[in-house]
Design goal:
With 138 residues, the protein is α/β, with parallel strands linked by helices. The chain is built from four helices and five strands, in the order E-E-E-H-E-H-E-H-H. Helix 2 links the parallel strand 4 and strand 5.
């Protein structure tokens, strides 16, 4: 089944969708939206277009494992996605994914505006990668 991972942000929301075999990321994009409602509508459209059957939303935890205000926003976004798509999103610990995404892009010579426009999709890919690996481990 196709699984969508989401790195929710204030201005950009990264999206990564697995292939049908749940082996790797088959599609990535960034939704540019300044409200959760617009971002959720964009996600719902992609769910339909790509026949996504499951959603995982990155949950930004503090390094000590606690949750802050950003985590609450992501939980609210997941609830909104549930209403818009009919799917119940799983929450996935996304600690360090954005830091790792910046490192990956830097290591590959991606700088400036191009990095800003792709870092959220790379972070979503890292969320998806972790989630898919955990499913294989079960």
């Amino acid at each position: 089944m196709k699984i969508m991972a989401i790195d929710f942000g204030d201005a950009r929301t990264g999206i990564a969708i697995s292939d049908q075999l749940e082996m790797l990321t088959g599609f990535t994009t960034v939704i540019h939206a300044y409200t959760a409602e617009k971002a959720a509508s964009g996600v719902a459209q992609l769910v339909k277009e790509h026949h996504v059957e499951a959603i995982v939303v990155g949950l930004p935890r503090n390094m000590d494992g606690s949750e802050g205000p950003r985590a609450a926003l992501c939980r609210d976004f997941a609830a909104l996605l549930s209403e818009k798509t009919g799917l119940t999103p799983a929450m996935w610990d996304e600690r360090r994914t954005t830091v790792d995404a910046h490192r990956i892009l830097s290591d590959n010579g991606v700088r400036g505006k191009k990095r800003k426009n792709t870092v959220d999709a790379v972070a979503a890919s890292l969320i998806l990668e972790g989630y898919l690996a955990s499913r294989k481990g079960r």
